Amino acid sequence: MKASSNIRLQTVVLVVGIVLAGVKFVAWRTTHSNTILSDALESIVNVVAGGFALYSLILSAKPRDREHPYGHGKVEFISAGIEGGLVVLAGGLIIWRAIAALLAGQHLHDLDVGILLTGFAGAVNLVMGIALQRRGKRSRSITMEAGGAHLLSDAWSTAAMVVGLILIRITGILWLDQVFAMVFALYIIYTGLRIFRRSVAGIMDEADLDLASSVIARLEDARVPQWVDMHNFRMIKYGPVLHIDCHVTLPWYYTLEQAHSEIATMERLVNDQQAGEVELFIHMDPCIPASCSICRLDECPQRRSPFRERITWTKETVLGNAKHSADPK
Questions:
Q1: Is pTM, for the whole model, over 0.70?
Q2: Where along the chain do the CATH 3.30.70.1350 domains lie?
Q3: N or C: which terminal CB in the chain sees fewer CB atoms within 10 Å?
């Protein structure tokens, strides 16, 4: 997935977000509804976060240099963190505004127009959110995934707001407007905290165990007897680039050319599975006598002890930093 296509999509999302923010503020000015205002304030967050996201995508697409040998992808986690913080701030402002309006006894006007404008904006956000999330997952971009999650939460909260406004229109109970606004604000804050938590996890290089399990399972499915063991498996992400390093045990008597061929095969397997760029740094370990107990290479001319047990490669068995062996039974 080319970075340029991600940048173009994010640019479209940003421009549309600016237009939708204007539509929502028109709806608020028409109705004086704090429920609609809460949606409009979150749209400001959408625009600001979209600007940060676009900048981070442009920066992360820059080639590596001497100062950034792993690229500029980490900026995506910073962008997602800023977006999460802005979402939480918007939720707090919505609650403050709703409480003030509840105490003041604010009146509503032209709810029909507000319902139509807000519903239209929510439908557009739904389409953009789905598009961003799908693109983010394919290109492994946390910036686009976070933006998509934010827009989807905005769309669903807008749908709930429309239902609430219709209920207010039918019942005439105006204070429900403030109650709905505060409920939606709490949901917005929850969404922002989730986005912020994921950005911190990325900055701290927290392991993506689901992705690690997928990569390990691919290697296990294609495993051949000469791949005796694997351990010290680690994986980090720099934007769309996935970096993997691990130790692989091969027969000690293999020539450098033979060993390199096996490692190259493993690299191809992982790169063929993943949509984006993958860098593998595989340390080749020679087998030791203790490795014979887990080695299925039947034609090995240097075997020192019989085979006892095959160690299946899973995240539980390969993340540790130690060679495996099977104890005598």
A1: no
A2: 209-318
A3: C
Q: Contact, 161 vs 179, CB < 8 A?
A: no
pLDDT, mean over the chain: 81
The CATH classification number of 209-318 equals 3.30.70.1350
- More confident: 231 or 76: 231
What is the bridge-based pairing of β-strands 241-250 and 278-286?
Answer: parallel
Most trustworthy range by pLDDT among 25-34, 93-102, 227-236: 227-236
Domain with CATH 1.20.1510.10 in the chain: 3-203
Q: Determine the Cα–Cα distance for residues 302 and 298; give it in Å rounded to an integer.
A: 10
